[in-house]
Structures are given as structure tokens and as C-alpha cells.
Amino acid sequence: MHRADTSPWWRSAAIYQVYPRSFADGDGDGTGDIAGIRARLPHLRDLGVDAVWISPWYPSPMADGGYDVSDYRDIDPLFGTLSEAEALIDEAHTAGLRVIIDIVPNHCSDRHPWFQEALAAGPGSAARERFWFREGRGASGELPPNDWQSVFGGPSWRRVTEPDGTPGAWYLHRFAPEQPDFNWEHPQVRAEFESVLRFWLDRGVDGFRIDVADNLVKDPALPEVTAQAPSPWSDQDGVHEIYRGWRKVIDSYRREGVFVGEVWTADPGRFARYLRPDELHTAFNFAFLQSPWEETALRAVIDATLAAHAPVGAPATWVLSNHDTTRHVTRYGRTDTSYALDGLRVHGAPVDLELGLRRARAAALLTMALPGSVYVYQGDELGLWEVEDIPAALRQDPTFLHTGGEDLGRDGCRVPIPWGDESPTAAAPWLPQPAAWAALSVRAQSGDLDSMLAFYAASLRIRRSELAPNPDEFRWLPAPEGVLAFDRGTVRSVTNLSAGPVPLPAHDELLHVSAPLTGGLLPPDTTAWLRPPR
Question: Rounded CA gap, 222 and 242, in Å?
Fold first, then answer.
């Protein structure tokens, strides 16, 4: 692929996230698969992205949508075969697309051979040392070892029945009970994952997205959680030694591989430590995703993000939606446009979809103008919204199950995307699509120059041609209240978040706009790209 600058591709890449179950169904069984991804590679190529990130495709009982892995070196039959995955990687490369795959190192499935061995081996066995087995509290060990709570609701501990049939020890699971946490102090765990990295690098993958990258190392004392003390299960100092080892592995392949970490650390200084030159290349910038659609908040997040990355020379990442979060068309159509990832998801709040779509277009163009890499979640390019009326009987997210329905979970952002050319004999999608999505299908939007699909393709094309020569250049411009304006050298970005139209700053050419201008003025909730005056 052509780039005007000589910096590594991942510093300014546009990366498209595929959630395999919901992207494209190649065999007509209602579930997305590798055959579907292969068939739709032209869509990704024509959209103009540089790489595709594929969420877990490994063998899994699907207790957490594939993030409960039972074998890290194979493909779940639901999606296809290892040979099909290898063919996909080759075909993506031929199409000019790099391939990033998910790796899930914090936990595995309770069906993983190591965990099955640990259950069978019994108390005190070497096999249990790869996990966090502990005796319970109380007179008979009937209480969990501590008060840690699962991300999905309820205690972070589950008691096992020992081989002799008696109640036994407890094991740690920061997520679902079917996802026991690995003990990363164990050398076999470290060696195993370095081997897994090599397995997939040998098959041509270009990088890895690391699930809950800051959670691997726990405080071995397993202390109770207090408001005053740091988290005992995240951002422990020992995690950096792990990633220094991983960096040596990927660098040994002498190609431009990339790690992107799912890092939830809020402290900018500690966040930057993950991005030192001998650790991860990039990490997700969740503060931007969480920000409300408001000029002061967005500017503060942009400033803080760039400041956090500057000391280590790492590129920022910009993302609006993913497989874990409420789709931003819905979020931006609400009165409260912020998104608190550490709290209960908002469901059922009134949504103005017309407003949400307008803001989603503006936000996409704003995001693509910022220095660094940008992520597109499948369906963003179609303007899809969160599906909130999925029947309870069809919901599969463990968050819904373990909170007794108090939190409806993430199924609403995982509904399969519409293509419009599906076979009439194909099974119904594994989660139901709204009837209104027929008008948003790829087929329906193709050829429509006013569609969201055409808008994304044009945005990505102009981003590549106009911004690549200046990957890190950024300068705020004076602007009226409620307006974000900055210069990227070859492109000037202006976003109007105020209540009324505003005049555009001086420019030689209007390169791109998220909504039509009115009388030469930029309407509210609109972003424009301008060529600065010479």
C-alpha cells in the first residue's frame, strides 16, 4: 500500500475490527465465519482501511463470545478451519490488508486442557499452580478467599468439587466463572504464550490485540479491595516484564508487527509505561470513546492523550465504538452522550437517531483527522445503531446472565451487520437484525454518494492522501466557543459542537465535510476538512 511517509504503517493506520460471529456468514448457518470474511475482503479493501483486527476465532465453548479460549493454536469449527485462516491471511495480504488477531492472555476457558488437568489433579498439585487456586474462608472454607468481584457480576471466585466429590478450593475468575485466570508468575504460562505468539506469526499475522492487557499480574497477597489502595489485579509493575519478552518475540520476525493493548489504566504516566520502545507499540485510548460530545471535554481528552503519548514517542489510537461498547450513533443521539465503561450500560434512554447519525459522521471525520491510528468497528461505516430490543431469551452476553438482567450487556452492538445480498435460504442471524437495517445494508448504500458508506470511503481515502505526509503534526487553531479547530499541516479540521452555525476559517479548498454547508456556514454537529491557505 502506498504511504508518503516512511514511518511504520501502524503509526497512522486505519484498522477495521471484525467480530467474526457478526461480520459475514459464508455458509448460511446464521453465524459469521472465516469464509464470510474472505468473501468480504473486497469491501474492506474498497473502504480504504489498512488492516483488519479479528476478534477471537479460537476453539471456545462461547461462554463469553469467544473470549473463553480452549485452544490458542486452532480455529473454532463454528468459524472454519486453520487452513482457512491461513488462506484468509494470505488473501488479505494480497488485497493490501494486514491482519491483527486477538490474543486472550489473562484467562482461558474452563475447558482448556491445563484447567481440566488442574481439576483432576486435586489440591496442592503442580497443575493448579498455573492458575489462582486458594482455600476458602470460614470454618469449612465455604466463603470465597477475598471480596473481589467479577467484571460480569458476582464474586470473582468459584469453588470446585474435588476428585473425591468433596467441596474444595476456589479459583479466581475476574470475568465469567468459565474463564479461570492464569497465574502469570508461573514460568510455564509465560513460555506458553510466547510460543502461541510464534505460532501465529509463523502463519503471517501482522500483530495482536491484547485483551485486558493490564490485568495479567495480580498482587500475590490477594488483598481486599479498598478505595485508598491501588487495584490488586490491574496495572501491577510485573506486567511490563511480560511485554518486554513479547516485544523480543515479535521483533525477532523482522517485519513491522504491532501490539495494541487493551489498557484501562487511567493514570497518564502509568499508561505511557506500556508504550515504551521495548514494550507495546500502541494501546487503546478509551478516554476519547468515553467523552461526551462537547467541545471542552473533547479538547481536554485530545490534549491529555497526545501529552500521555509524547514522552515515549508512541502514536495515539482513536476509536468511537467496539464489540464491548454502545454504538456511538445511539450514544450521540441521547441527552447524555458520555459513556462510563466502569458503570452499568445505559439502556432504554430516549434516542434521536437523526441527531446521532449526524454527530456520528462529524465524530468520524474529527477522529480521522487526529494524529495516530484510527479504528473502525464493523457497521460504523453503515451508520448502525445499538439494538436494544433483543428478546431476553436470545441474549447471550454473560453480563446479562450474571447480573440477572440488570445490565443487558453487549449483545446490542454485536448484532450481525446487513449486507443485502444474503441467500434467501440462509438461516436467520444468531441475533435478530432490526427491519430498518435493510435500508442500511452494504448493497443498499453502494453507489449512493450521500450514504454513510460513501462518506467513510471518501474520508479514509482523503485521510490517506492528505494526512500521511504529516503523521504527527498537530496545532490547535483559534476558534469560536463550541468549536474545535486544528491544523495538521496539509489539512485543517473544524468541528462545530455549538448550537448554531459558524463561519469557516480561511482556507483554499473545502476537502470534505460531514454535512452540507448552509450559506457557507458550518452547521452544528458538523466537521469540515479544509486545505489551509498557501
Answer: 20
